[in-house]
Amino acid sequence: MLVALDGPAGAGKSTVARAVAEALGFTYLDTGAMYRCVGLRAAVDPDVDAATLDIRFDGERVLLDGEDVSDTIRTPEAGQVASRIATDPAVREALVTAQRRIIATGDFVAEGRDIGTVVAPDAEVKVWLTASAEERARRREIPVQELTERDERDASRETSPMKPADDAVEVDTTGLAIDEVVARIVGLVGAVR
């Protein structure tokens, strides 16, 4: 079974996806980390071929070509580079292929921008996680304008634009505790099992 959790930056996707995966006994797939890994390599080699990178997950740790980059990829700068690199159709194709291969191996909670629309449009549960721009900027500790620029870039890219799947359930996390959000999503999963 796959739970697809999509939404804009700062909506709480990673935190919620980890907690939902734990509650369900599923594996968590952080697709954003994959784009951040490509962005990290592209910063030193602009012609990097995403398909040749070895991106693996070891629990909460992210390994890029055998190197633990878990902390390095979590900086705001890495997030901005990832957003820009994600507009490259070749990068998206390589990572979507890798993501599909991973989620085919078991029960997953996968989070990103296009899981329910592109990576796995047949996911059993699709959630569009959102929050107000002010709340998301506060969580990311960045200016609202920077966040809205990223939203625009993610939503307007030609390949795999960020948008909710037609059959996604919207969950607005503004002002909600993580436990409340997790319970709602776990309830959605229970309804289809």
SSE diagram, text form:
Blueprint: E1 2-6, H1 13-24, E2 27-30, H2 31-44, E3 55-58, E4 61-64, E5 67-68, H3 76-85, H4 89-103, E6 108-112, H5 115-119, E7 125-130, H6 133-140, H7 144-156, E8 169-172, H8 178-192
Parallel strand pairs: 1-6, 1-7, 2-6, 7-8
Antiparallel strand pairs: 3-4, 4-5
Helix pairs in contact: 1-8, 2-3, 2-4, 6-7
Walkthrough of the structure:
It is a single chain. The mean pLDDT is 94. The chain contains eight helices and eight strands. It has helices spanning 13-24, 31-44, 76-85, 89-103, 115-119, 133-140, 144-156, 178-192, and strands at residues 2-6, 27-30, 55-58, 61-64, 67-68, 108-112, 125-130, 169-172. The strands form two sheets. A five-stranded parallel β-sheet has the order 2-6-1-7-8, sandwiched between helices. Strands 3-4-5 form a three-stranded antiparallel β-sheet, with helices on one face. The longest helix has 15 residues, at 89-103. It has a single domain (2-192), classed as Rossmann fold (3-Layer(aba) Sandwich). Residues 140-157 have a biased composition (Basic and acidic residues). It catalyses: CMP + ATP = CDP + ADP; dCMP + ATP = dCDP + ADP. Residues 140-167 are annotated as: Disordered. Keywords: ATP-binding, Cytoplasm, Kinase, Nucleotide-binding, Transferase.
